[in-house]
C-alpha cells in the first residue's frame, strides 16, 4: 500500500498535483523526481528537465537489466519436476526486468511481447553475452537520442502553464502504460533510461532553498527503480520518512530508515511524516482523565442535539406552514451544531491517537539510535489539507483544523531544518568575510591615494607656500607697526624726554 509521499509533496508545494499519485498497489513514482525553485531559462510557471543516463551509466543499466531478465529463465540443468517448480516460482525481479525491457523496446520485433523477449534471452549463451547486451545498448542509445537533444547535454525540457498540462506531457516519461491496463498495447517509454526529472516552480518553501526529492518506493518490485534509490538518498541532507499511521509502529521500513538516516546523516537529520492522520476506527479509551471528560461532554452534546432533531421531526407532522418554516431554520442550525460537535469529537479521538503514535515512535527512534534529540514527527492529513486548498461547504467542514492537518507545521520545520546552511553562511559572512571586505576597502583606499600622488602633493605643498608668504607679510606688518608706533613716537618725544631727564638729574 502506498505511504502517501507523493501526496505529501503536493501538499507541501501547494500548487496542485505535481508529484504523481495513484491508488493502485504499484508505485506511481517511476523515476526520481526533484522539486526546486524556478530553474534558469524557465519561461513558464512549471518546467521539467528530464536528465538521461550518460553513456557509461547507460551500459551499466542495460547490463544489469539483461542480467536480471536472464536470471528469470528456467535452468536447463534442473530435472523435469524441479524445472516445473522453478518456472512456476520465477523471481519477481526477473519478471519485472522482462517487463522493463518490453517498455523500452516494444517497437522492436525481438521485444514486442514477453514471449519474444524470453526467446531473445534464450539465444544468449550467458548473462554476460555481449552480442545481445550490445544490441540492447544500441537500441537504448537510439531511444535517448530520440528524446534528448545532443546540445542540451542529455536533457529534455517540458514546460506548461499548469501542473495538469505538465504531467500530461510527462506521462510517457514517468509512467508505464502497459501496467495500467492489461488489454492495452504497450508503448515505448524511456523511464528506465531517465536518471532524474527536475521540476522548477515558484514556491515560497522552495525559494527558501528547500529541495524535495520524490523517490521510488523501497518496496517497489522493479529492481531498476530500487537501484537508483541509494545514490539519490546519499545526495540528500535529511531523511523524511513517510508512512501511514495505521502501519507506522509496525513497519520495518520505518525502523530501517530511522537507523540508516541517523547513521548516515547524523542527529536531527531524520524527520517522520505520518500520513492519513484523520482516519480513525473504533472508540478511543487511551486519553487522560481530562481528555476523556471532554469527549464525554462532546458525546452528550451530540446525543442532546440528536434528541432535539427527533423532536422537531415529530412536531413537524402536525405543525402549521409557518411553524414548519421556523422548524426548518431551527433544524438547519441544529444540523450545523451536530456536524461541529461530531467533528470536535472525532478530532479529540484523532489527537489522542496521534499523540500516542508520536510517543511510541520517539521511543523506538531513541532505542534504535540512542539520539537524545527528540525525533521530529508530524501527523499529517493530505486529504483534509486538500479540502482547505479546494474549499468546502460549511456543512462539510474537515474534521481537522488547518493547523491540525500538520502540513503547515511540517513545511515550517523543513524551512528551518534546511536553513542551517544558509544561517551558517550568513554568520560566516558577518564574522569573517565582512571584516575582510572592510579591510580590503581600506587597503584599496590607501592604494588609491598613492595613485593620486601628484594631486595630493599639490594639496599639501600649496598651503605650505601660502603659509610662508603669510608669515613674511606678518613680519613686514610688525616691522612697519614698530616704525610707525614706536620709532616715530620716540623721535617726536625725544626733545621733551631729554629736557625732563636733565631736570631730574639736576635735582
TrEMBL record:
<dbReference type="InterPro" id="IPR027417">
    <property type="entry name" value="P-loop_NTPase"/>
</dbReference>
<feature type="coiled-coil region">
    <location>
        <begin position="288"/>
        <end position="315"/>
    </location>
</feature>
<dbReference type="Pfam" id="PF00350">
    <property type="entry name" value="Dynamin_N"/>
</dbReference>
<dbReference type="InterPro" id="IPR045063">
    <property type="entry name" value="Dynamin_N"/>
</dbReference>
<keyword id="KW-0175">Coiled coil</keyword>
<protein>
    <recommendedName>
        <fullName>Dynamin N-terminal domain-containing protein</fullName>
    </recommendedName>
</protein>
<feature type="domain" description="Dynamin N-terminal">
    <location>
        <begin position="2"/>
        <end position="271"/>
    </location>
</feature>
Amino acid at each position: 500500500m502506498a505511504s502517501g509521499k507523493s501526496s505529501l509533496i503536493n501538499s507541501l508545494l501547494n500548487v496542485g498535483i505535481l508529484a504523481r499519485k495513484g491508488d493502485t498497489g504499484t508505485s506511481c513514482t517511476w523515476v526520481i523526481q526533484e522539486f526546486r525553485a524556478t530553474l534558469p531559462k524557465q519561461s513558464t510557471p512549471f518546467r521539467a528537465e528530464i536528465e538521461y543516463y550518460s553513456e557509461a551509466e547507460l551500459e551499466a543499466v542495460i547490463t544489469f537489466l539483461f542480467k536480471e531478465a536472464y536470471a528469470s529463465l528456467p535452468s536447463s540443468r534442473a530435472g523435469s519436476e524441479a524445472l516445473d517448480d522453478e518456472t512456476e516460482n520465477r523471481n519477481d525481479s526477473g519478471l519485472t526486468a522482462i517487463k522493463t525491457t518490453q517498455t523500452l523496446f516494444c517497437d522492436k520485433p525481438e521485444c514486442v511481447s514477453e514471449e519474444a523477449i524470453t526467446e531473445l534471452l534464450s539465444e544468449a549463451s550467458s548473462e554476460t553475452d555481449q552480442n545481445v547486451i550490445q544490441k540492447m545498448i544500441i537500441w537504448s542509445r537510439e531511444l535517448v537520442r530520440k528524446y534528448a537533444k545532443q546540445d542540451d547535454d542529455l536533457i529534455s525540457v517540458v514546460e506548461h502553464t499548469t501542473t495538469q498540462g505538465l504531467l500530461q506531457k510527462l506521462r510517457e516519461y514517468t509512467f508505464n502504460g502497459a501496467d495500467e491496463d492489461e488489454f492495452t498495447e504497450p508503448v515505448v517509454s524511456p523511464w528506465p533510461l531517465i536518471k532524474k526529472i527536475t521540476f522548477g516552480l515558484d514556491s515560497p518553501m522552495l525559494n527558501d532553498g528547500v529541495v524535495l526529492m520524490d523517490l521510488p518506493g523501497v518496496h517497489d518490485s522493479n529492481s531498476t527503480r530500487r537501484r537508483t534509490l541509494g545514490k539519490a538518498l546519499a545526495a540528500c541532507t535529511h531523511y523524511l520518512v513517510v508512512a501511514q499511521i495505521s502501519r507506522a509502529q509496525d513497519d520495518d521500513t520505518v525502523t530501517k530508515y530511522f537507523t540508516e538516516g541517523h547513521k548516515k546523516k547524523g542527529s536531527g537529520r531524520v524527520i517522520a511524516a505520518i500520513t492519513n492522520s484523520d482516519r480513525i476506527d473504533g472508540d478511543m479509551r487511551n486519553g487522560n482523565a481530562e481528555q476523556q471528560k471532554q469527549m464525554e461532554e462532546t458525546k452528550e452534546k451530540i446525543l442532546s442535539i440528536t434528541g432535539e432533531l427527533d423532536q422537531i421531526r415529530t412536531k413537524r407532522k402536525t405543525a402549521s406552514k409557518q411553524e414548519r418554516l421556523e422548524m426548518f431554520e431551527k433544524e438547519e442550525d441544529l444540523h450545523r451544531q451536530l456536524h461541529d460537535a461530531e467533528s470536535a469529537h472525532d478530532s479529540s479521538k484523532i489527537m489522542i491517537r496521534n499523540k500516542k503514535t508520536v510517543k511510541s515512535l520517539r521511543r523506538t527512534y531513541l532505542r534504535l539510535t540512542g539520539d537524545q534529540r527528540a525525533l521530529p514527527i508530524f501527523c499529517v492529513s493530505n486529504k483534509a489539507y486538500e479540502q482547505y486548498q479546494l474549499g468546502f461547504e460549511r456543512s462539510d467542514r474537515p474534521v481537522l483544523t488547518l493547523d491540525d492537518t500538520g502540513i503547515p507545521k511540517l513545511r515550517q520545520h523543513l524551512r528551518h531544518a534546511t536553513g542551517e546552511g544558509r544561517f551558517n553562511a550568513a554568520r560566516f559572512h558577518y564574522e569573517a568575510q565582512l571584516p575582510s571586505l572592510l579591510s580590503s576597502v581600506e587597503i584599496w583606499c590607501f592604494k588609491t591615494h598613492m595613485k593620486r600622488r601628484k594631486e595630493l602633493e599639490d594639496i599639501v605643498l600649496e598651503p605650505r607656500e601660502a603659509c610662508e608668504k603669510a608669515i613674511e607679510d606678518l613680519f613686514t606688518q610688525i616691522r612697519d607697526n614698530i616704525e610707525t608706533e614706536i620709532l616715530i613716537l620716540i623721535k617726536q618725544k625725544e626733545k621733551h624726554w631729554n629736557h625732563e631727564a636733565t631736570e631730574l638729574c639736576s635735582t
